[in-house]
Write a structure and sequence with these properties.
The structure holds two protein chains of two kinds. Chain A has eleven helices and no strands. By secondary structure, chain A is mainly alpha-helical. Chain A has a single domain, classed as MetI-like fold (Orthogonal Bundle), CATH 1.10.3720. The longest helix of chain A is centred in the N-terminal third of the chain and has 34 residues. The termini of chain A are far apart. By secondary structure, chain B is an alpha/beta fold. Chain B has a domain of about 70 residues. Chain B has seven helices and ten strands. In chain B, strands 6-7-8-3-9-10 form a six-stranded mixed beta sheet, with helices on both faces. In chain B, strands 2-1-4-5 form a four-stranded antiparallel beta sheet, covered by helices on one side. In chain B, helix 4 packs across helix 5. The longest helix of chain B has 14 residues. Chain B is globular. The chains are: A mainly alpha, B alpha/beta. At the A-B interface, helix 6 and helix 7 of A face strand 6 and helix 3 of B.
Chain lengths: ~230, ~220
């Protein structure tokens, strides 16, 4: 019990003292994970909308494929992105390996199938009259698709929140392509892994507690947005 | 017949190899209320979907005001903006009554002052003045259908298509529909309604067209 209480007290202490290293880690974690979710959503939301709304040969296979990709281990994604970004890899010339940019790329790859699968589910379960109603009122096909997205907004927002939850808590990809460099690519999860390996369990617990506080803040903001849209 | 707004020539529609509509020739006169009657599965709703440009026919040609409707889906918006459909159980967007009614006007880029005035006028027309701020989904079934009617009327369409407008309506809403629809031909609006409510449909319509198994029944065409 002391282990948990110690971690909690230390975490609160670090927050209260405005510890620059902890706030730096929090800021980087937020920046990387939010950027990754936005990047993934730019592709995943339109794709999910398209797959969910249209009927075409191979649709069922695509849906099963995206659902399967949800089980993709983070280290595998890390490995693939590492391979792409490494010096001899096809994207090695970008010089992104061991930078926050590489972490954003890896986390976006992780979030993409999850957001796509959840948007497909949201659109498929939505009332099928939304699109035709918009069209009969004079919408273009793009405006009708936007109407569908607006009607499914709560489920789409939940998909984005789930995507954020997936990437902000992952450690495998972030450590492989980010390298856990202090003051540069160290996020909550990579720092927790480091502290644990050093035997600094209380410090690890403290960081875990702060990660939860950050996730709570992001989810509260998302709920506020939902309330405003009601 | 003079001046048809809709003209259908050799229109055929199939669903899964089953022919649901086969109309050799059908003209729907401008400024007239036409009722389409027929048993379930006669092709009435399919006809409305074709007229609303939601479903393209597999064969045949469709003319609107003398001009042939193009086949390409990307070119249909300008045509659709002259035609509006009120479905049997209309879908209302999950927002306020006012935003539902204003939706089509926003798409057309009408400025807010004019939009607000038109929305108010349409809501008054269907007896829902003062309902603007209410959540559309929390209204009764009849009120929701009246919102859908206001959302169509506010666009001042050249053609208004109604699928079973009197089904599941409370007496007040039914009266509102009859009053509003009866007045539309005077405003130059062409109305096509599909209805099982024979008495109301026959009372309102200047012409009644009968469909049986997707084909016109000439002997029953009244008007």
């Amino acid at each position: 019990m002391d282990f948990f209480l110690g971690g909690l007290t230390k975490g609160l202490g670090l927050l209260a003292q405005l510890d620059p290293e902890v706030y730096g880690i929090a800021w980087l974690s937020l920046r990387v994970s939010l950027s990754a979710v936005i990047l993934a959503a730019l592709a995943a939301v339109p794709l999910g909308l398209l797959i969910g709304q249209r009927e075409f040969p191979g649709k069922r296979f695509l849906v099963v494929l995206f659902n399967t990709l949800l089980a993709l281990p983070t280290v595998v994604v890390g490995l693939v992105v590492y391979g792409l970004l490494s010096y001899h890899g096809p994207l090695g010339g970008l010089g992104l390996l061991y930078t926050p940019g590489a972490m954003v790329a890896a986390q976006a790859v992780l979030a993409f199938p999850l957001i796509t699968a959840l948007v497909i589910a949201a659109v498929t379960t939505l009332d099928s009259r939304v699109g035709p109603t918009a069209l009969t009122l004079g919408a273009t096909r793009f405006q009708a698709a936007w109407a569908v997205l607006k009607e499914a907004r709560f489920a789409v927002l939940a998909a984005l929140a789930a995507g954020f939850g997936r990437v902000v808590t992952e450690v495998g990809a972030a450590i492989m392509v980010g390298g856990n460099i202090r003051h540069y690519t160290r996020t909550f999860t990579t720092a927790i892994a480091l502290e644990t390996s050093k035997g600094e369990f209380a410090q690890g617990m403290a960081l875990g507690f702060i990660l939860l506080v950050v996730a709570l803040a992001v989810n509260l903001a998302s709920h506020q947005l939902q309330a405003r849209w009601k | 017949m003079s001046n048809p707004l809709f003209s259908l020539r050799g229109v055929v529609k199939r669903f899964h190899d089953r022919e649901v509509l086969n109309l050799d020739r059908l003209d729907l006169e401008a400024g007239v209320i036409t009722a389409v009657e027929g048993p379930n599965g006669a092709g009435k709703t399919t006809l409305l979907a074709i007229l609303a440009l939601l479903t393209p026919p597999d064969k045949g040609r469709l003319f609107f005001d003398g001009q042939e409707i193009p086949r390409a889906a990307s070119q249909l918006t300008a045509w659709r903006r002259q035609i509006t459909l009120v479905a049997q159980q209309a879908y209302l967007f999950d927002t306020s009554v006012e935003k539902n009614v204003a939706y089509g006007l926003r798409l057309r880029g009408l400025e807010q002052t004019k939009r607000d005035a038109r929305v108010r006028e349409a809501l008054e027309q269907v007896g829902l003045a003062g309902f603007g701020a209410r959540r559309a989904r929390r209204l009764s079934g009849g009120e929701m259908q009246r919102v859908a009617l206001a959302r169509a009327l506010v666009l001042r369409p050249r053609a208004l298509l109604l699928d079973e407008p009197f089904a599941n309506l409370d007496p007040t809403s039914s009266q509102v529909f009859e009053r509003v629809l009866g007045d539309l031909p005077n405003q130059g609006c062409t109305v096509v309604l599909v209805s099982h409510a024979r008495e109301q449909a026959h009372r309102l319509a200047q012409r009644v067209v009968s469909l049986r198994e997707g084909r016109l029944t000439p002997g029953l065409d009244r008007g």
